[in-house]
Amino acid sequence: MAGVLRRSSPERYFQPRADGATGSRARGEYTENSVPVCACSVCVAALAALAVIPQGSVASPPATGSGSYAVTGAVATGVRLADGNVFVTETESADATGTLTGTFAHDLVVTIHPDGSLNFRGKGTFTGTVDGVSGSFEDTIEGQGSVVSLELHGTITILRGSDDLVGLHGHLTIEGIPATGGTYAVQFHMDG
Fold first, then answer.
1. Which terminus of the chain faces fewer neighbouring Cβ atoms within 10 Å, N or C?
2. Which residues contact 186 (CB under 8 A, 6 or more apart)?
3. CATH number at 63-190
4. Where along the chain do its domains lie?
5. Which residues have a Cβ under 8 Å from the Cβ of 85 and sit 6 or more positions away?
6. Which helix H or strand E contains 168, and what residues bound it?
7. Chain centroid offset of residue 111 CA
């Protein structure tokens, strides 16, 4: 049977073969140029299904802002000395105004070195509004400064938001005076 392809799955339709005889799809015979009806139906159905699948959400474009913050409280929960360094574990709160309006609360480890320089790191939360949208977020904070020159700079990284700030990501750079306050610049976006 020249020009006949064999197929194992049975179907109930008939189609003429190239030699003019009638072959049964039930017997699995197709001409080389024939396309099974069910294969076309499957392709059409697959394309139709793809057309109605919702596409992934798109993140908002990055936004920037700025403002100031003032430390409103700090409670030392532990102090340790080692090799001339002072390690202070503390809980610190600060009020922010500007693009972020609300309150930060951080659990910090501050290391003060013999020359007066310092490093800090910790985790915390913010509750308030970001560019007018209410909610809260979790963050990490780290930086350095000096108790001699009264300078501080660092970074706050926004990890995850809640309430209307779900999907919030971004970071703040902070400049200021240790245990007092300063300014911040923020860059953020919302996942869609």
1. C
2. 64, 65, 66, 67, 99, 100, 130, 170, 171, 172
3. 2.40.350.10
4. 4-52, 63-190
5. 111, 112, 113, 114
6. strand 168-177
7. 31
Read off the pLDDT of each residue in 82-90 and give the average, rounded to a whole number.
97
pLDDT reading at 100 higher than 60: yes
* Integer Cα distance of 111 and 153 in angstroms: 14
Tokens for 172?
């703040």
pLDDT of 113-149, one tens digit each?
A: 999 999 999 999 999 999 999 999 999 999 999 999 9
Compute the distance between CA of residue 74 and CA of residue 90 in angstroms, rounded to an integer.
7
20-65 per-position pLDDT tens digit: 555 544 455 444 454 454 444 444 444 444 444 444 456 778 999 9
The proportion of the chain whose per-residue pLDDT surpasses 70, expressed as a percent, equals 69
Rounded CA separation 45/40 (Å): 9
Rounded distance between C-alpha atoms, residue 125 and residue 107, angstroms = 9
C-alpha distances out from residue 118 to 142, 147, 148, 184, Å: 11, 7, 10, 19
